[in-house]
């Protein structure tokens, strides 16, 4: 079996497509009007209830999962998102004990989107701050060999 991706039901296809394509910088692979697939495995569907043939109860904020994206410059992304109308943040940038910085917000259909530094970026940041490869590996829980490639 091969995992085929994640499909989210959206209320306004054009607004959602524009958000993921223009704001989140995802590349459209296929656009069928009611269904849009992106190269990363994310798909949007505007007539989901009709598609599955079952009456569904829409969730205002389905907070039991999130979409996850990695970026190199999290501060720039936070500024970009704060400039958009209608984006509600769960929290701004925060740092976890392993050093990764993340922020979470709702997209226009109230799905949680996490945007985080890649762990490669975290390792590079720690090394540039003077931590050794071993110290960086210990802090981030990454293998020393992975960290050493950024020296």
Automatic annotation (TrEMBL):
Coiled-coil residue spans: none
The VOC domain is annotated at: 2-118
Lineage top rank: taxon? Bacteria
Pfam families in UniProt = Glyoxalase_2 (PF12681)
- Output the PROSITE patterns linked to this UniProt entry: VOC
- Give the protein's recorded name: Glyoxalase family protein
- The organism's lineage? Bacteria, Bacillati, Bacillota, Clostridia, Lachnospirales
């Amino acid at each position: 079996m091969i995992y085929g991706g994640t499909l989210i039901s959206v209320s306004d296809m054009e607004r959602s497509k524009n958000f993921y394509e223009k704001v989140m910088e995802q590349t459209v692979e296929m656009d069928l009007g009611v269904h849009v697939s992106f190269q990363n495995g994310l798909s949007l569907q505007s007539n989901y209830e009709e598609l599955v043939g079952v009456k569904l109860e829409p969730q205002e904020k389905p907070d039991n999962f999130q979409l996850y994206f990695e970026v190199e410059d999290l501060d720039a992304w936070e500024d970009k998102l704060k400039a958009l109308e209608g984006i509600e943040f769960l929290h701004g940038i925060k740092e976890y004990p392993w050093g990764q910085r993340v922020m979470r917000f709702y997209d226009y259909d109230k799905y949680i989107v996490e945007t985080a530094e890649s762990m490669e970026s975290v390792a590079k940041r720690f090394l540039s701050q003077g931590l050794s490869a071993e110290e960086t590996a210990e802090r981030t829980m990454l293998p020393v060999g992975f960290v050493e490639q950024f020296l």
